Amino acid sequence: MKFKMVHENYNVADLDRSLAFYEKALGLTEKRRINGEGFIIAYVGNAESDFELELTFVKDHPQNYDLGECEFHLAFRTADFEAAHKLHEKMGCICFENPEMGIYFITDPDGYWLEIVPER
Question: Are strands 7-12 and 49-58 parallel, antiparallel or unpaired?
């Protein structure tokens, strides 16, 4: 059997805020949307990959989501690591840097960590 990864889900408190963040920070745009009773699912992605991030907004979930210790994350590779770092620094979303490994992490509006790695 073969399996292909297709998407990862993040539950979000404010869908519009999250969509704006992912577009500005990572160039991800909405590909499709499901409007359900009490929830909205927006799938975001880009032309670099067919993998999608599923952003789920649940209307009746007023409290913040418990992300534990944020030991999970998605990673994004970029050919222009310096420009990405400058953008994320300007956005104020860098939450951890590891210069020895040549990587850093940003955090989205809900506290999810996203790793940024250079092309090598």
Answer: parallel
